[in-house]
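Protein modeling request. Please complete all fields; requests missing the sequence field cannot be processed.
Requester role: graduate student
Desired output: 3D structure, token encoding
Chains: 1
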Amino acid sequence: MSGSIDTHHHPYPPKYVAEISDQLRTITHAHFPHIQKWTPQESVEALDKGGIATAILSMSAPGVWFGDLAQTRRMARDSNDYMAQLARDHKGRFGVFAALPLPDIDASLREIEYALDTLNVDGFGLVTNYGDKWPGDKAFAPVFDELNRRRAVIYFHPTAAPAFEGVLPGIPSPMLEFPMDTVRAIASMMFGGTLSRCADARYIFSHAGGTLPMLAGRIESIARNRKDLSAMVPNGVMHEIKRLYYDIAGVSHPIAFNAAYQLVGASQMLLGTDYPFWDPTLASTTLAKLVPDAAERHAIERDNALKLLPRLKTLAAA
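Delivered output (318 residues):
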């Protein structure tokens, strides 16, 4: 898998870990001690172990929103500066999906300008909800309109919505709520009109779209019979689903992988490792077992990412 591109790779900036250690401990549980010890060199070694040329850095759940707008603005800027510095320090090994300080609209618009024009990032990394709002909410329209104007790549990582977190006692949010909230985010953007209105932006969803492959047909059939919903997707539900991109992080079981593969095809799938939560070699092992066609494997490992992120051609030369 030499020369491949990992679109789902998480750093843990020291300031970020120190500021929200309690929240991280709640979400990551057994992984928290490892996250505390994370270093950039550890990520570089993971890339080498997995035969990966370049990884796109993005902040993982829970993101940078904890109810305090000033804190969110500060953590987004600090995290973006930190990731951009990593990319400069390890030239060719890292790209950046910058965080935005949502739900602060004005600050997010300023951060888009700073991230693209000063830091030269590759796109933006968002989470699937911001408290009681999902990304298709009309309040976020100015941000997505600007991202669309910039033809930005927008990567979504799931996080648990407060309304559902802990709804089943003892069941960790990443097990059920993360894949479900991915579908909530997609449905929100689809039926909020964002996907059809902002068609020049490109969108990546984690973990093969969560539970989307199982629900796509149901979403399509119900929307077809509801004029209010079908009006928001003038090109159809499946058109929107099939033009999104989906990384394969954590989707190693053949049933889950093949469901996504049959839904959207190899052209819309991207390599993702979800490091440091998964062994970076798992994704390559999955592809070797489940995608026999060499050209399709190469597309998922590298070519699809280069179409989305052409700047990486100079960073991830085979």
